[in-house]
Amino acid sequence: MAAPVLVTPTAPRLNNVLFTTDFSEESLKALPFAGGIARACGSKLHLLHIEPSAPLSAGLADTHLYESAGKNAAQQLAALRGVPEIKGLDPALVLAEGGIKGEFLKTISDRHIDLAVAGTRGRTGVRKMLLGSVLEEMCRTATCPMMTVGPEAAFISEAPFKKILFPTNMSELSKKAVPYIALLAKKYGSQITVLHVVPEDEAMTSDAKALGESVRNRMASSFGPALAEFQPEFEVAFGATADAVLRIAREKKVDLVAMAIRNAFRPGILRQRTAYRIMAGAPCPVLTVP
Questions:
Q1: Options 3.40.50.1110, 3.40.190.10, 3.30.70.260, 3.40.50.620; which CATH number does 13-155 get?
Q2: Residues forming a β-bridge with 20
Q3: In the chain, what are the domain boundaries?
Q4: pTM: predicted TM-score of the whole model, two decimal places
């Protein structure tokens, strides 16, 4: 029997990177990451702010106030060009008006965006974590990979993504993240850890050591060829997926969690979804590939 042909996924190109902001401190924390990626990949950087539409019932005074707010937003957006981390990139400015979903998708389509970057809000309490309603809407609708940056993330210009954690359930869907991980690893000389989390109940009914070795071999077979040049580490953990991913991200002090997602942001079940919990609780940026 002939040996199987290993097909390496086509390397993506990040020609256009979008940074979206409401000018809050949390959102602006993501700007250095967007600028750093644009600089490393030779991408065009786009800066987006979406102003909500004036209500139809607004009176004349309200309309004037709304127009003033729009002018202020334009000035704030233009001022971002002077931020040191993106100096010299000559970013395009996009001031949109309307609904978040529609304008975000329109910008992605019109500007041929390959990666969107946004900041998340901080935690409130030990276990309650929030992305913020606006960002949740963007995550639901994004048609391109998206990087979310939480308040704990610190941008280090010399090596922003030195360690990358790739959580996978070993499905075909999860392989969609591999080309982006390989692209960033090549640009930044990253170390890659591929992680699979085995549910606790499954581990309890099996020989944990033998199961872990079997899973590790499957990961090496599935992802080893595509990531061979980076000499990835394959790790198996046991327990609840989100808890294990966040624990290992902290233990290994990773600089990026990258994963493929599907239906992770359907309305009504956000805070129960694994992807949401990882994005909201990660100590570093999280790259999600739809």
A1: 3.40.50.620
A2: 48
A3: 13-155, 156-284
A4: 0.86
Could you tell me which of 100, 101, 81 has the C-alpha nearest to residue 91? 81
Integer Cα distance of 194 and 216 in angstroms: 9
The residue assigned the tokens 């000389």 is 189
Four-point Cα dihedral 258, 198, 192, 245, nearest 10:
50
What average pLDDT does the segment 88-101 reach?
92
Are 95 and 2 within 8 A, CB to CB? no
| DSSP letter assigned to residue 97 | E
Over the stretch 95-116, which tens digit does the pLDDT of each residue have? 998 888 889 999 999 999 999 9
Q: Which residue in this structure is represented by tokens 């786009």? A: 46
Gap between the Cα atoms of 264 and 226, Å rounded: 26
Tokens of 50: 């979406």
Question: CA 198 to CA 215: how far, in whole Å?
Answer: 9
- Cα dist from 104 to 45, 150, 234, 248, whole Å: 15, 20, 36, 33
Question: Is 147 within 8 Å of 117 (Cβ atoms)?
Answer: yes
